[in-house]
Amino acid sequence: MRTVTGQRTLTVSWRMRVLHVSAEVAPYSKTGGLGDVAAALPAALVRLGVEVVVVSPWYHGLGGDVEPLWIGDIDVVTGEETVTVGVGTLEENGVRYVFVGHPDFRRGALYGYADDVERFVRFARVVPAVAKRVDFVPDLVHAHDWHAALLPAILEHAPLLPLGFAGLASVLTIHNVQFQGIGELDDVLRLAGLPQGLSRSYLAHDGRANLLRAGVGFADLVTTVSPTYARELTDGAHGFGLDDTFRHVGPKLVGILNGIDTEVWNPATDPFLAAPYDVGDPSGKEACRRAVRDELGLDHHGPLLGVVSRFADQKGIDIVLAAIPALLEMGWRVALLGTGDAGLEAAAAAAASADPERVAAHLAHDEGLAHRLYAGSDALAVPSRFEPCGLSQMIAQRYGTLPIARETGGLRDTIVHAEDGYLFGPADTGAFVQACALAYSAFATPRWTSLRHAAMVLDRGWQTSAQAYLARYRGLMGVSS
């Protein structure tokens, strides 16, 4: 940062301090892409010279084989009540993680409870005091998804904030607008210690509190995880009832594409694979192809179409399942990995049981098998009805596995049709099968080798994304680079 005094320019040594707040952060807690981003983006920002603290709940049974250093309890006065929380810390890759302990989070799962909104309102309200407890007063606060989306309103309107937090600049990143945090207005205002006047603000929507909408309205900057998804949020088909709000905030909404962790997802060093390979020497991919088929009991004929996904309506798993007869007739083999909707799981199991040498279904979370499927498949099906960004298609490309994906959200931004993957339009089985037929026609030809090479050389790391966020941070603070 530079300050000008008379004719003299004085260079001031300064390191930006950013507080990230997320309901999950890998590997300590994770249900999907949010946990990955909340880990990878702060680490990439640290490499750019930013000081970062990540605050997240201290769930029962944190992953990563860690136990944070407990530094004590604090009492946070939120207005009408006092909330007591425990604070624990650890540091990894230059990022300091701070975990908030409370009975709200001593449960078997991260989410899925009737009082989820109340749980995360309490969490957001205590974040400033927790950060102050570890002597971290940031230059700005970056909240992720609905769980932390009340923070911009808290920073602007809540009383009794620690010194240095009132009026801080704020960023909200939306990872999936489908989940908004909808609760009772009076309860949210009371728990957050916010003034009753906010019942007529962005917090209110259709007579109830909507935490995500509050974040969109009160944050100084709203980002989402791909440029196409940012545009999609402003239309009725993708905005999940908030499209008018997104149109209203206008240029405050921007899309910054996610990256992937290129150290974790690297076929040259991946410890889960049967053989290493890279774009310079892809020969090891054949050993990976054979090994995963043997593991799943599949024969060795035709190309393998992999699915690594949550089994949910959003992900279009039903489209793949309905296409299986046509895919098998074409010559594909199909392997599905994931968990979720019970009906989709049952249908996948039935398809595998009916033809076990050509269809496999592993209905569990299996990190090692996910790596092996990315490496051992020839193509990856990503038929999402909507996809804010998507990480699986970028991982697949890095592993030389061509994505066959719907032309939506981040899938559209990361795949060039018939150059490093394949895209299809309508969210229906016919369009998906046509894209698979186009891919099948190129398989085992020099064209396929060229497509695979084009996919593997893409730079999908976090550095470009982190630089884009840092530029936005500086813009909010009026700081030159």
Low-confidence stretches: 1-12
Q: Could you say what the CATH architecture of the largest domain is?
A: 3-Layer(aba) Sandwich
CA distance, first residue to last residue: 7 Å
- Counting DSSP E segments of at least 2 residues, the number of strands comes to 20
The CATH topology of the largest domain: Rossmann fold
The total domain count is 2
Instruction: Let me know the average pLDDT.
Output: 94
Count of helical stretches: 17
- What does the overall shape look like? globular
Q: So, the CATH homologous superfamily of the largest domain?
A: Glycogen Phosphorylase B
- What share of the residues lie within helices? 25-40%
Structural class: alpha/beta
Question: Which CATH top level class of the largest domain fits?
Answer: Alpha Beta
Approximate strand percentage: 15-25%
Which strand order spans the largest sheet, edge to edge or round the barrel? Answer: 5-6-7-4-3-8-9-13-14
Q: Rg to the nearest angstrom? A: 23 Å
Give the biggest beta sheet. Answer: 9 strands, mixed
Provide a descriptive summary of the structure in words.
The protein is an alpha/beta fold and 481 residues long. It folds into 2 domains: 2-259 and 463-477, Glycogen Phosphorylase B (Rossmann fold); 284-456, 3-Layer(aba) Sandwich (Rossmann fold), CATH 3.40.50. It has 17 helices and 20 strands. It has helices at residues 33-47, 116-133, 145-148, 151-157, 185-192, 211-218, 227-232, 243-249, 284-296, 317-330, 342-354, 367-376, 392-398, 409-414, 429-442, 446-456, 463-477, and strands spanning 2-5, 8-11, 17-21, 51-57, 69-77, 82-92, 95-101, 140-144, 169-174, 182-183, 204-205, 208-210, 221-224, 253-255, 304-308, 333-337, 359-362, 379-382, 402-406, 422-424. It has a 9-stranded mixed beta sheet with strand order 5-6-7-4-3-8-9-13-14, with helices on both faces. A 6-stranded parallel beta sheet has the order 17-16-15-18-19-20, sandwiched between helices. The protein is globular, with a radius of gyration of 23 Å. It starts with a strand and ends with a helix. Mean pLDDT is 94; it is low at 1-12.
